[in-house]
Amino acid sequence: MWDWAYTFEILPKLGWAAITTIQATLIGFVIAATLGLALALTRIAVPATAWIISVFVELIRSTPLLIQIFFIYFVGPSFGIVLDAFTAGVLAIGVHYAAYCSEVYRAGFDNIPRGQWEASTALNLSTWTTFRDIIIPQIIPPIVPALGNYLVALFKETPLLSAIAVLELMQTAKIMGSETFRYTEPMTLVGLFFLAMSLVSAALIRATETAIRRRMIR
Amino acid sequence: MTDSPMVRFDKVTKRYGPLTVLDSLDLDIARGEKVAIIGPSGSGKTTVLRMLMTLEAIDGGVIYVDGEPLTHMERNGKLVPADKAHIRRVRAKIGMVFQSFNLFPHMTAMQNCIEAPTTVLGMKRREAEARAAELLDMVGLSAKKDHYPSQLSGGQQQRVAIARALAMRPKIMLFDEVTSALDPELVGEVLQVIRRLGEEHDLTMLMVTHQMGFAKEFADRACFFYQGKICEQGEPKSFFSNPQNERTRQFLRAVLEAG
Q: What does the pLDDT look like over B170-181, one tens digit per residue?
């Protein structure tokens, strides 16, 4: 049933593919976290943009990520946007999760007492300084758990990139399976990898939370 | 411009929806004058401070600070609503202390006091720290400069808030019910600091307060607000001992009974 020789044979190749998965996760999350913050900030700084951002966020959240990946990769070229599979896929994942992250940031902003903004005004801080020094440092700690959950969720969605043939873990395992007709080992290994990484990330996020809470209480 | 009042409300009106909170308010405050604003809740007294701090937009009239318009600016000889840059420039003359302190919770007392001087005035960090250390010393909190707000009592937090506002070298200080959120035994230390400020600095002060005893002894003038208008004002000793208006009398009686 389980072929150890085959397992060791495919392990290095899967290891390389895992690097692609991790790259996609990290780059995707950086896009999600920064674009999400930009969306939430724009919404506050330029209230006139609020409705269009709401529409954008709703649109993204209400359609499957797979369709968005296909859209950027296959429909993009009709609009002159030609991206390689990895870039297109990571961009789609990043934008998709940016929509979710923007709502997390928004809740964070909503939780800042009005007095913080008023004290900033009374001290004549510029809008930029108020965000940078007063508001953002206060919204980050409470939203770390929520952002962390999205990081793990995003990570677990990277196999969708196999649909546009990005050579990440899932795609690599699929190719191995179709070449040797042995799916058990590659699929199990991929599953184990995701399990291990998810557990590690969850532990890291919890540690970060605890560290932040300790800093906050002081 | 030294002959102009430090603050002038010229027919200032403020509405919230159908409710008129301030109705064509005229009020001049002289340089160095200390004015206590009293009145029942909903009388518009806090709104006066909030408009002056530009936390609330006004619906009519003009507010002048140090001889120039705050809410408006001159363009081609006409007054037009002020833009952000103008408001920021004039607003720099005003500092405010809030009922709920509003310290930045992620910063120490010292950091709270140097944030605005370094980012707004462009002061060097060391210079700002030296100045903040003096101010924290003045409010009696030298020993607490590295403490976070959560580690300070309400009275201590409010004193840091006063030091923080002073660090911007305002000409006008606004105190919005600064002792209302404090436990009774902490009120004294904050009033003591304000009293000292009044004695040692040439500041114009406006305070909304329920501390009638303090207002009587400290202020140069008391203004009683009722339903969006100044109902009665005058020199505190006579104002408190011999109010002319029936509304004032009712209010003072009620406050003294509670007090």
A: 999 999 999 998
Domain count, chain B: 2
pLDDT in tens, B6-30: 999 999 999 998 888 999 999 999 9
How many contacts does A have with B, using Cβ atoms within 8 A? 63
In a domain? residue B226:
yes
Give the closest of A121, A123, A126 to B54, CB-based: A121
- Using the predicted structure, report yes or no on whether residue B3 has a pLDDT greater than 80: no
Give the minimum alpha-carbon distance from B256 to chain A in angstroms, rounded to a whole number: 30
Is the distance from CB of A201 to CB of A148 less than 8 angstroms?
yes
E strand or H helix that includes residue A177: helix A169-180
pLDDT confidence of residue A54: 93
Antiparallel, parallel or unpaired: β B229-234 and B221-226? antiparallel
Contacts of A121 in chain B (CB under 8 A): 53-55, 91
Q: Which chain A residue has its CA at the smallest distance from B86's CA?
A: A124
* pLDDT of residue B240 exceeding 70: yes
List pLDDT tens digits, range A78-89. 998 899 989 999
Q: Domains along chain A?
A: 16-168 (1.10.3720.10)
User: Which among A118, A125, A137 has the least Cβ separation from residue B102?
Assistant: A118
What is the 3 state secondary structure string of chain B? Answer: CCCCCCEEEEEEEEEECCEEEEEEEEEEECCCCEEEEECCCCCCHHHHHHHHCCCCCCCEEEEEECCEECCEEEECCEEEECCHHHHHHHHCCEEEECCCCCCCCCCCHHHHHHHHHHHCCCCCHHHHHHHHHHHHHHCCCHHHCCCCHHHCCHHHHHHHHHHHHHCCCCCEEEEECCCCCCCHHHHHHHHHHHHHHHHHCCCEEEEECCCHHHHHHHCCEEEEEECCEEEEEECHHHHHHCCCCHHHHHHHHHHHHHC
- Strand B72-75 versus strand B78-81 pairing type: antiparallel
- Same structural domain, B19 and B59: yes
**Is B164 touching A (CB cutoff 8 A)?**
yes
Axis-axis angle for helices B154-166, B125-138 (nearest 10): 130
Q: State the pLDDT at residue B259.
A: 60
Query: For B119, which of A113, A115, A133 is closest by C-beta distance?
Result: A133
Q: CATH number of the domain that B198 lies in?
A: 3.40.50.300
What domain range is B229 assigned to?
7-93+177-258
